[in-house]
UniProtKB/TrEMBL annotation:
This is Outer membrane protein with beta-barrel domain. Keywords: Signal. Residues 1-27 form the signal peptide.
Length: 205
């Protein structure tokens, strides 16, 4: 547990250093640019072995040549199980999980190509509002009557994302694909997301 906390603190310090040093260095050369991003994709609840869909909205504020500050709201809803939990034929599983994730992140461009391709890494704290319902068979009870466990979450975890971004024919629109992970309560990754994004320029360079 202490090791997890030490790694998290070290990561945040590194990200703050990467963010503010370039911001100071290039503040006289470039003006901040604002972008709005929408997206959607697939998600996995690794703790409960569920799969589902996600929808994402982001507001991106450019700090420097390689850094940006992002505010995102992601909604996730499970749609099914990744494995057979012994549900009888014709019976629907009661397992489900969902959440709204409110996430501020610092993003750093690891790779910038002349073609317009950008590979970036982002990290930050994330507030999850949601929960899950899990059905567990009671083998010791009469007729194996199942237990239903319901958890409600209002918790802060760690959000990490690796994103590839590229140009489109429209100079004001860019496409991106992000692979992100969320962890909380010393379990990482709890959720995994693969999200396709469309990014719109709404501010001056």
């Amino acid at each position: 547990m202490k090791l997890f906390g030490m790694k998290t603190n070290l990561l945040f310090r590194l990200l703050f250093f990467m963010a503010f040093v370039p911001a100071v260095s290039f503040a006289q050369d470039e003006k901040p640019k604002v972008q709005y991003t929408v997206g959607g994709g697939a998600s996995i609840d690794g703790n409960n072995l569920l799969w589902g869909l996600n929808m994402n909205n982001e507001l991106n504020y450019k700090l420097g040549r390689r850094t940006s500050l992002n505010a995102a709201v992601l909604f996730y809803q499970s749609l099914g199980n990744l494995e057979n939990r012994g549900v009888s034929p014709g019976q629907k599983s009661l397992d489900q999980s969902s959440g709204i994730f409110i996430t501020p992140t610092l993003k750093y461009d690891i790779l910038q190509r002349d073609s317009g391709f950008i590979l970036a890494f982002a990290a930050g704290p994330s507030l999850q509002l949601g929960g899950n319902t899990i059905e567990v068979v009671n083998f010791s009870g009469p007729e194996n009557t199942p237990f239903i466990f319901t958890n409600k979450f209002q918790r802060i975890g760690l959000f990490l994302e690796l994103e590839g971004e590229w140009k489109t024919r429209n100079p004001n629109i860019r496409n991106a694909v992000g692979i992100s992970a969320y962890g909380a309560e010393y379990y990482f990754p709890w959720y995994l997301n693969a999200t396709y994004k469309v990014r719109f320029n709404i501010g001056k360079k």
